[in-house]
Amino acid sequence: MSTALLKYMEEHSRAVDECLKTLFETRKPEQPESIRKAMAYSLFAGGKRLRPVLTIAAAQCCGSNPRKVLKTAAALEMIHTYSLIHDDLPAMDDDDLRRGKPTNHKVFGEALAILAGDGLLTQAFETAADNALDIGLDAKATAKLIKTLARGAGTSGMVGGQVADLEAENWRSRNHGFKPGTTLEYIHLHKTAALIIASLEAGAILAEAPVIQQRKLAAYGRAIGLAFQIADDVLDVVADKKKLGKKGSDAQNHKLTYVTLYGIDEARAKAHALIETAHRHLAGFNKKAQPLHDLADYIVARDK
After folding, report:
1. Nearest to 252 by CA among 56, 133, 93, 142
2. Which domain holds residue 125?
3. pLDDT cut 90: percent of the chain above it
4. This model's pTM is above 0.90
């Protein structure tokens, strides 16, 4: 990671964390303390805060102040964290570790972990709606913002991708009608890219950017979202598991991935080609788009 990008990530990740702490540091009168603790445990367990930073970078790219989109950036991290809590459950990937720490259900039990994920998902929409109210976003743009988050997180986005991922397990034993390449792209586009696209679109919507800019940022998000998951597939094979902060692997779970289907070298080549596409989608934006260029390059260069 370049020095400039490291500084950018640290500055805005810190701002997102401060926003999240304000939202979670005190229990709401009607909220059980146990659920607040379970939600906060995973939310503050570490992580790159990539999706919130993308929301901020997209807004800046469109000429907006980062503070204007901070609550929605935090909301994107809530949605992402909810998905990780549910991913780790025994009925899903059955992981004991996340970011080097015991997974939520190992600490709080399965029932409370499920509810912690539910709580984060629903609070995300409350927080994004608050953001729209705070800045006086008009009704049409507010509806588009909420729809964008819901589509990215729901059955047309991340949840749909998770379902396809589960259904593709033990893919080598499938019948001749199964098309692994088509299924794999669907999984990656929905399981990972959809929420990344939503993060960028949300920043542009809050910045009240023209539709053409929103579309360019969505296309950029599609490219880096696919590249991000391909890079994850490669890291699952080649990276130090301590750096990844988990002990499971896609191979152990018989997952359909770019590495299992195409091999490491072709997977890496595909990721780099997608990053070049992402850069092209930023053509027409000014130097304020530099963090998005840097983030694209970082996605394929990271080691965890």
Report:
1. 93
2. 3-301
3. 77
4. yes
